[in-house]
Amino acid sequence: MKPLYRVLQDLEHASRRGTLTPSFIDEYAEKHGERISALYALAAKNFLTVSHEEGRNDHVLRDPSERVRGVNAVVVASAMEDNAREMNRELRRAREDGRPYALRKPGKNAFFVRKPGS
Q1: Is 110 part of a structural domain of the chain?
Q2: Is residue 9 one of the residues assigned to a domain?
């Protein structure tokens, strides 16, 4: 295993030459006893782009329209409203019983176990 600064120099040199590909990383890892995932992480941390290689990472070349553009804000807002409604119902029930919600939490680790029939 090489020291970290030497590995980083090798990756930067390969990046400047345009030979930093998945095959290069595989061969480098095998030759120097490094982990492949560690080399990818080191390249990403130092903003080195691993070039596309035919047949290796074809997912990069997919049509951009197929990718998910982001989060559907309407669905997220709806889910948050449902969650807020449910939480308000639970808090209202806790207020009606006269106990704080923390004491009425459902589950086996509750501070106060509600007696049946009360």
Answers
A1: no
A2: yes
For residue 98, the enclosing domain spans: 73-102
- Determine the pLDDT at residue 7: 93
Instruction: Reduce the DSSP state of residue 64 to 3 states and report it.
Output: helix
- Asked if residue 104 lies in contact with residue 114, where contact means CB atoms within 8 angstroms, the answer is yes
Identify which has the larger pLDDT, 30 or 103. 30
pTM, full prediction: 0.48
Q: What is the chain's alpha carbon radius of gyration, rounded to the nearest angstrom?
A: 27
**Residues 18, 42 share a domain:** yes
Q: Tell me what the pLDDT averaged over the chain comes to.
A: 79
Dihedral (Cα; 90, 94, 97, 98), 10-degree rounding:
-160
> Domain check: are 54 and 78 in the same one?
no
Query: Which long-range contacts (C-beta less than 8 Å, at least 24 apart) are formed by 14-20?
Result: 15/43, 15/48, 15/49, 18/51, 19/51, 20/48, 20/49, 20/50, 20/51
